[in-house]
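note to self — DONT lose this again. spent like an hour looking for the file last time. sequence + predicted structure for the chain T wanted, 98 res
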Amino acid sequence: MTGEVAGLIAERVTTCPDVVGLSGGPYGTVATYLPGEMVSGVAVRDDEVEIHIVARYGRPLAEIAESVRGAVADLTGDLPVNVTVDDVRTESELQGET
């Protein structure tokens, strides 16, 4: 799997209804580095894909993680996809953001 797929994974993840965005992790280290760009929140490795998200409050987090895995399954093949929820935002927090 090439690193370029990280951008496609990021696009798919951010279209999941309960995903507010991607997160680089607590120290900003969850990323895939490509020539001239970085895809934050998605780390594509030889043996796994790591995705860190910010979720919308309300739905069980395990269900959100499973929908993320499902959204990227055809891109990740047989690699395990580890989804970590780094933060949760309420509707009122989201409405306050511009």
